[in-house]
């Protein structure tokens, strides 16, 4: 009864508070708007300081609108979660609120033209990054913002107000996308991701490229048709079509994944979708930049030329591998630093270091001319796989929570901005024919990605990707933040403007319709929900040898890497894994002793006592450690049964460790070393948190 | 033995890693610098896009330098903490590293002049915020950055490189200071802060104003003397002197407080110092802006005029009260939202809401023309006092940790930037006479703040501020982030440049010398360390009635507020406190029932059972609740022993509740409502965390 009262109370109060927030939002918009026109006659000696202050106040007000939007989204989404409405995700909601505010800004408020912002009749022969202007003896510094389309110059003056709420597109790549992508990488540490690695890589790389070209070709057909009918108002080249194909190939099924998480949908399906979406963002980003880099020599810059294409291909490989290397490198450095210093005694320092190193990846990649967002993704994966194990339990929580929060804020910000920009963007080009063509192409491109690849993958997989899984993956090809960010980055030409407008519609449609229909689609496709990954685990024990051979089959590529990782990388970079003295050949003894942390030896002994109850459910622990004779001689060096053992680290070991990592219990050794760890919060299931 | 090995191992490895970081830092600086000169002949048709990209890369590289600096600081400070070196705080260290990098940037790297950045011979008669430049048919958009001193125009072109690492001073006020100040406010929730509230307010308001005027007058004397000797190279008015007085009156004893925390120095001294430093930042900020607002009419704008002074005083009151009201208002709204919604079931949403609302305070204040930093301070205090109690335990941890991290990063960033700017700032004016005068004035100003005020306060306090406490407070008047941010905000005139250079030296000196000598000073003044606040508490029980009368005496101002807060505000805004139905007069029954949360009734009963062991150590629980007859009639309304009870909420109650809040156990009611709370981390002592 008490609970009932609370809910009603809450419900009533929420409604009041909502009204309050809504009213305050509109008041805030009006107040801020009203403050922007300046009363003073402009052409006199204008006080620069006052103007800068005014501009700052305006900026604060604009940002405040977004903050209020996000607050509203949070409150609404709480209500939805409270009442278990699943048809609308927070991102979809953020878009709706963005749309509403966009309508208000566009049609509701009339701001008189700011007459002080006139075009200077200043004829200079260059456009330097910094400009010093001499106004009657005083020098003013101006910074270059960018080139403006000649026919948009009139708009600039008319719609100063709308342009104010338009962010520099680079904000997305430099501030909002990095935490989103890092978080995705940082939460990739899942057993089923690694078990399905081959398929995920195939979908992400091959699939995205296929999808890009299919969409590009279809759109080119569409554009040619439009030209015939006379519907095209500007240039639209084949590279533009390919570019469009690349940007709409980045899937972002955040809505679907949230529901999967909540309903505990089959873990393999989850891993396939999540892994694919994380990696294909990176692929689409690099792909689009290498398409932009395609510049054949000669007069006509839009002909086919082998050299230019090879050049583009080289750019793709170079940027991708460069970003990959940088991301992994900073991840490895962080792992080493956290392993060899006892920074974990001071959680604040540890968390700060982790945050700074992850951020520096982005900056380093950008400074080197690579792609920061891609580097950050691989940095995130490396941090999750290695560094995470070295962190103190509290820092593990802190970093997870920090990036979760940043991801949440950035994501909702992008989606509400998306809604807003449908009305506030100045140069929309909505072409019905292009839009219909694009929807068709996006659909077919996704189909050309999923079905043929699944067929090919199923030839090699024993644990087949069933047809209902394929349909679900087809259906879950939502477009989101990355597609939007890529399409808004450059809206200078007619083709890009048309692409941007169409992309917005594609995102809206997929997020609302496909996202909203996820539960229906799940039940329609008879995909089992409520799968506990633990239960799944214990079932596998019953299935026994049959299942093991399945895995051996499907993950053959991964097994080689796994052995290397388990025997060398993990021991070098973390406190877990077998001691290096046991896995490296005897000649590397001193190095191995230097790199092996004392915990590794402890882990070895420990496996046989206190942790064994956690992992002994497979019943074959002896298989892993039973055949190693570990003896400590006088010098403290460990000798093992020989290097042949490395290959013998069996697949069960892999499976167990991954399952283990899944439950975030890897830091077994660390608990012994720190006497103050007793006061730390105990292990809490990370799934609970991701689910929120 | 194992531990020994680890330490040595760690030590060795750290040294290697350090070298690595240092080398990578310098390589990074060199690489970034090397990439900046452009090879192409400039005066041709320059590709804007390429230039923007180049500029972006440059920005990334510059930011990377700072990130690397912070990383280095973290690693070093870990080592210091590990070895228990207390003579150098992380902020002092950050300054040293900043200095080193500043030297390298200034003298180590020679960058050829960027010839493309020339002054345009463009004579226009206005300086609009946005400028459109027509370069041979193409339009480029420029945004106004600010006015440049006419004689600094040459420098602009020469030292483009140094100017690149110079941030816009508004970055400090809009990005770095808000989290620092909010964190200070958010961690103010301490029993001893409230018990010493009167003294703290006196030091912060009266003391800062006294210090400002004393320093201002002394500096004016110094300036007049300098003019006589012919040492002054430009104008320096009395308002400039007062401005200098205001900015160096903001104390920031972060170094001292960190040591106090570590050594567990007397809690009253800690509360006095911390409370004063938090509030006087706000006072100094508003004071300086009202001094800038002093503009008498007439020809000579630097004469004394009563109207202008009253106007300045009005600005002070207006801005301060406006910011206060805005800060408290958003805090109250957040408290209400978190109280009346069950947002605490979703910790991510709760934390995000908390973060956004706190941020919106800043933006709202800035948009309204108030001071965001001051608003954020009072918002932080309100959030700590009310909202914090409504949050779920996990969100309490999350928010604390989040703002702790932001505070740490922002603080160290500012201090390392301070070190850097000593060498990279272009227009330093170091005048030995002014510097000596300033040091003397700062010393005397602090003395004129502490000693007379302490004498006056001691007249009213029974728990006297002893002379060794006074000396310690005198000694702990370090200058820090706020002083720096205020002095770098405007460096256009000769006077401001001289102030800035001098301020830098004052900050360096106080942070290194006073900060480093804290432990020596503590032992020299015989101030007791290792005081456990719990122990202090139990001692008070022995002291008995004597102590109670002490408190009654010292906190008379506060007692009135406390009763109001405990009986009305706490029950309205949080789940704790007595039910409103018991404290409000019966005529407000329906409103009281609406506003009282069910937990309040539960708390009432609960007090008599499960939590009583926690608070019964004073032995007089009956004093609080014994004299209220709470009976529930048929309508569910609670009737109390009458409104006279409100005054009867005794002082012991106050003390107990504050002690209680100190141990962060206030959310007793919430634990019953949430069935999922079992999985939450248990209560951990917040002192542990603040101490790190």
Description:
2 copies of one chain form a homodimer. Chain A has a two-stranded antiparallel ribbon with strand order 1-2. In chain A, strands 3-4 form a two-stranded antiparallel ribbon. In chain A, 69% of the residues lie in helices and 3% in strands. The first copy, chain A, has helices spanning 2-34, 48-82, 90-108, 153-158, 160-164, 170-186, 191-195, 197-229, 238-247, 254-263, 267-292, 306-340, 347-367, 372-390, 393-424, 432-460, 467-475, 481-489, 494-516, 518-524, 533-543, 545-554, 556-573, 580-583, 589-595, 598-606, 612-615, 621-625, 644-648, 651-662, 670-673, 686-691, and strands at 130-135, 138-148, 631-632, 638-639. The first copy, chain A, is mainly α and 692 residues long. Chain A is globular, with a radius of gyration of 28 Å. At the A-B interface, helix 1, helix 2, strand 1, strand 2 and helix 12 of A face helix 1, helix 2, strand 1, strand 2 and helix 12 of B.
């Amino acid at each position: 009864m008490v609970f009932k009262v609370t809910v009603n109370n809450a419900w009533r109060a929420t409604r009041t508070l909502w009204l309050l927030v809504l009213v305050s939002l509109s008041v805030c918009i009006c107040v801020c708007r009203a403050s922007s026109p300046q009363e003073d006659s402009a052409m006199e000696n204008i006080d620069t300081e006052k103007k800068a202050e005014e501009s700052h106040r305006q900026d604060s007000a604009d940002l405040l609108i977004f903050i209020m939007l996000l607050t509203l989204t949070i409150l609404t989404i709480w209500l939805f979660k409270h009442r278990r409405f699943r048809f609308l995700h927070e991102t979809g909601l953020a878009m709706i609120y963005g749309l509403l505010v966009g309508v208000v800004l566009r049609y509701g408020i009339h701001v008189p033209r700011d007459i002080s912002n006139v075009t200077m009749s200043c004829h200079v022969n260059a456009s330097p990054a910094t400009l010093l202007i001499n106004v009657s003896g005083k020098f003013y510094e101006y910074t270059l913002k960018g080139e403006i389309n000649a026919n948009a110059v009139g708009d600039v003056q008319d719609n100063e107000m709308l342009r104010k709420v338009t962010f520099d597109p680079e904000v997305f790549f430099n501030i909002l996308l990095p935490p989103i992508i890092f978080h995705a990488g940082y939460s990739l540490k899942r057993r089923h991701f690694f078990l399905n690695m081959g398929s995920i890589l195939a979908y992400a790389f091959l699939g995205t490229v296929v999808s890009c070209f299919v969409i590009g070709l279809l759109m080119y057909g569409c554009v040619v048709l439009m030209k015939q009918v006379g519907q095209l108002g500007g240039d639209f080249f084949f590279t533009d079509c390919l570019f469009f194909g690349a940007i709409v190939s980045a899937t972002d099924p955040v809505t679907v994944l949230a529901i999967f998480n909540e309903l505990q949908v089959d873990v393999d399906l989850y891993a396939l979708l999540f892994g694919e979406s994380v990696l294909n963002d990176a692929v689409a980003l690099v792909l689009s930049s290498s398409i932009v880099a395609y510049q054949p020599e000669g007069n006509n810059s839009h002909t086919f030329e082998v050299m230019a294409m090879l050049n583009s291909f080289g750019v793709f490989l170079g940027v991708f591998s460069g970003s990959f290397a940088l991301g992994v490198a900073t991840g490895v450095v962080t792992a080493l630093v956290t392993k060899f210093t006892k920074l974990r005694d001071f959680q604040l320092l540890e968390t700060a270091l982790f945050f700074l190193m992850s951020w520096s990846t982005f900056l380093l990649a950008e400074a080197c001319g690579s792609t920061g967002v891609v580097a950050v993704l691989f940095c995130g994966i490396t941090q999750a796989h290695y560094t995470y194990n070295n962190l103190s339990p509290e820092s593990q929580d802190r970093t997870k929570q920090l990036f979760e929060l940043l991801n949440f804020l950035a994501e909702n910000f992008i989606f509400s901005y998306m809604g807003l920009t449908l009305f506030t963007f100045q140069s929309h080009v909505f072409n019905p024919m292009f839009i219909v063509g694009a929807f068709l192409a996006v659909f077919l491109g996704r189909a050309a990605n999923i079905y043929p690849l699944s067929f090919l993958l199923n030839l090699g997989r024993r644990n087949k990707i069933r047809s209902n899984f394929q349909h679900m993956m087809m259906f879950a090809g939502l477009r989101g933040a990355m597609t939007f960010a890529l399409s808004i980055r450059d809206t200078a030409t007619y083709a890009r403007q048309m692409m941007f407008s169409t992309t917005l519609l594609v995102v809206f449609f997929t997020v609302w319709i496909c996202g909203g229909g996820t539960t229906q689609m799940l039940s329609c496709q008879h995909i089992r929900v409520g799968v506990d990954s633990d239960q799944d685990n214990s079932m596998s024990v019953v299935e026994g040898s049959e299942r093991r051979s399945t895995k051996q089959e499907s993950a053959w590529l991964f097994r080689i890497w796994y052995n290397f990782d388990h025997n060398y990388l993990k021991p070098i970079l973390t406190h877990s894994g077998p001691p290096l003295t046991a896995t490296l050949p005897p000649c590397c003894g001193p190095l191995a002793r230097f790199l092996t942390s004392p915990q590794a030896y402890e882990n070895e002994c420990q496996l046989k006592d206190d942790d064994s109850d956690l992992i002994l459910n497979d019943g074959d622990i002896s298989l892993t450690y039973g055949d190693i004779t570990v003896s400590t001689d006088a010098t403290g060096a460990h000798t093992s049964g020989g290097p042949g053992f490395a290959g013998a680290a069996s697949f069960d070991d892999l499976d167990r460790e991954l399952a283990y990592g899944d439950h975030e219990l890897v830091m077994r050794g660390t608990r012994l070393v720190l006497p103050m760890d007793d006061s730390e919060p105990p292990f809490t299931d990370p799934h609970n948190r991701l689910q929120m």
